[in-house]
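job 3f2a | input accepted
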Amino acid sequence: EVGVATHLAPELQRANLREVDRTPEHDNFALAVVIFQLLFLGRHPFSGNYLGEKDKTLEDCILEYRFAYGTNAKSKNVQQPPGTLFLNEVSPTITELFERAFDEENERPEPREWVESLVDLSNNLAQCGINPGHRFFNELLSCPWCRIESQTGLMLFPFTFSEEQNDGDRAFNIFTVEKLIDNLGNQRNLPVKLEKPISLIEPDPLPEIVESAKAHKSEQFLYIGGYFLALIFLNAIFGIVLGTFFGFVIMLILIGHFKTLNNNHQESLKQNLYEAEQKWNELEKEWTLSASPHNVFFDTKAIKEKVNDYKTFQLSTSKKLKKLEKNHRHKEFTDYLSSFHIANNEIDGVPSEEREKLADKKIWTAAEVEEKRLLYYHKVDNDLTQKLLNWRKGLESNFVYKPNSESFKEDKNKFLEENRIERRNIEKEIERSIEKLRADSVKVEHNQKLVIPQSEDLAKEISQCKSNLNVVGDSSFAMTSLILITFIVPFFASVITLSNQTQRYDYSINSSDSSSGSSFPSSSDSKINVPTKDAYPYSDEKLTEDAMNGLAVPNEDITDEDIENISFSSRRDWSNNLIRQAIWLLKDSKNNLKKAEAKVMLAKRIEPKNIKAFEEFGKTLYEKHLYEKSLEFFTKLETTEISSVIQLYMGMNYLELQNYKAAREMLLELVRNDASTKAYYKLGMAYKGLRDYEAAEKSFEYAIQMDSLNNVDAHYELGYIYFKLKDKESFNKQYAKLLDLDEEKASELLENSYKLPPKLPKGEGEVKVDGGSGSGNGMGDFKVSESSSGKPNADAEIRR
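job 3f2a | predicted structure (800 res):
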């Protein structure tokens, strides 16, 4: 007539039990609940977290078949509590029985089915490698009880690595204990410091921050444009000196204004970032105090020292036991020999009077018959000594040792009992230490899992604050622009004024190849030296393989839609990192060319306007002597403008491939727009290859004008060109200049131009060059005046 509501079947809930006939089907439900509680540490199968608006009682959940651990739990709007065993962590057979028992559409399992399944589970249990007290279904990949302990911070089961024997002793396997200690000490990676989670993709700044930053930058551009026009006006009205002074005053006022605006704009964002960083510092302190991984480390070390003491004790015990057995054997052997009296035994060749003399010397039994004792102590003659020793030897051969004698058993048991008490005390101490270590380890892991979610949220907040602050930026660009305008406008005004007062001289030279129709730049062009843009930031970078592999780059299968949703700074960083990896692969081995090209193609997809990075890759191809590949790469770059660096290296690639005409056209275009020493030098080499020596002469002259002291190669090539043009006077000047700059290069010029024979020994007088007058090069005979050292003087005269 009564029943326990928590174990009543759903159809009996809220029913009048006096009017209901109970059936075995009803009891099968109660039996399933009891078995579930046994396997799930007392948890009730219907005690879960109800996700609806109003709370449900346990009886309501039973009535409505809301099995919290079942596959239908989600559809029933309920979920199992945290820190509990999952239904699939028992055997598959028992999992199926629980689903049947608590589902409204299936027939409940009978007791015999439970018996068979529970016996099968009992026969298929595995022991946990971390806690020997944990047993679980052997087909699981990891111990579920360790997971629950780390989630809850509670110890579910005690350690049971020693078991009681029939004689009351315990089986204590020290090797099992050592393995257990290693597992406990290393089972978790416990960092000393809380690490910030690193996100590959920086969050986009908030929309309101972006709009505010745009408005701020627009205001700056208006001020900069107005200042530019105002400075031009001031220079035109008041002159360069006075106009620049007024402009400088206005510049200082604007810089102060920009700083004030920027500080006001960034103040709240910096405060948000500061507060987030302070929260992180507090979280780090909480991590250090709650986790205490140092304690786990030192506890593990202390236990290992105790285990070593235990091993030493066991080894000492073994040695003592062997010594006890050896002493007992010696005692039995001595007692055996002592039972044979010399006076009472006939000894071959030893008369009775001699035996009486031996008794007087206290040699009564075979135990006293020893060679040293007879010969040296009692001075018995050799013949008698040998007869006595032979007698003893015959007795020894008949000795039989009895290791299981009562006296030895008694001594051994006494020793083992004393040893067992001491050994058990050490074992108990190790057990208590391991129990403490396990509890500390579980506590540490639990505390960490509480802190880590907070750290992830806080790291996202810090990243968002930094992203907001980055989009705002600072006023450095605006202030730099003002400073540049302040100096550039007067400079160009001075250049224009000076150019109107000086006569221009045209150095135009027509190319020897009339079909090309190209002309050499004028002298005014040669003075144009437009500063190249900032170099690629990783030009001289030396990466290790680990650092190269650790660079943040996107997956190769990233879609164009994903790329559009990424911020410009992130795309630029990805593109740079891909180029860095490509350059590393190329420098590592030419066999990595295909991999490097794949990296570059992905970089072009991510950020097609990252010209500086692509320039660096093309330059690396050139440096690795892959001239065709470098040229092909630069040619296929899909960009609206070809930079001066690209033009230069394309020309250099053409030179290396001996396509001098194409090199000339490319380098001519370059020096018209962005003249430099190197550009003129390479252009001269192109003309040299085409044997247009007059144009080559002007190219090398311009290169030397731009950098005379550091341009030894240009001096050398210009000297060689003068040799080809048969301009003896100019050749002598270049030779003398090279002697001042680089004597070896000067000697090389002579050798390569006039094909000098080996030098004669010192004092041999004049050296004739190239076979005498009028031979070979058409330059006639030459004499080189030499110093006392044998080297040409700096002012050496080379005479026809």
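job 3f2a | The radius of gyration is 50 Å.
job 3f2a | closed
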